[in-house]
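Might you be able to consider the sequence and fold that I enclose below?
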Amino acid sequence: MDSQYVVLQGLPSPQVYHDLRKLANLTPPPPEAMAEAVPKSLQGSFACFVAYERKHMTDEKTPGPDQSAVAMGRLLGDGLFLQLVDVAVHPDHQSRGLGKRIMESLVGFADQHAPHAYVSLVADPLGQRLYPKYGFEDVKPGVGMFRCLRIQGDGEFKKAREAKQAAAMRGPGGSA
């Protein structure tokens, strides 16, 4: 497939990981995690794929010396249970099929190296249209949940959560 991009198995640098998440409107890791937690987390990936612009490559498998990844995606887990995370595409490179190519790489890797795995993900609204194309289904009646002290301890997050809970208590008619 001739394309202006090359998708390779490998890890982004911690800074590229941070920047791609931020630019793709995903929560970036906090500054205090950049020195130890982020590199350790990246190294612990079950699989990771990154995309580069072909025109800056040294050869088919080697990014240029100052070249940065323009898209990425990772699988985490033990081979029986996997979580698909960090599918991020730089805004300047979106709508060019990179998200699809990263997904094809991740799903293909999981199918080949962990064919019995239960692969899960949490989809942002934009991804909810993409992921079913790769066999992902809604977990209803299950509900996705999370725990993150730095986010849940944030004052704005607490206010939004309390407002959401109050609205749920009122129900569709508007009163409790």
Remarks:
- The chain has one domain: 5-139.
- The mean pLDDT is 88.
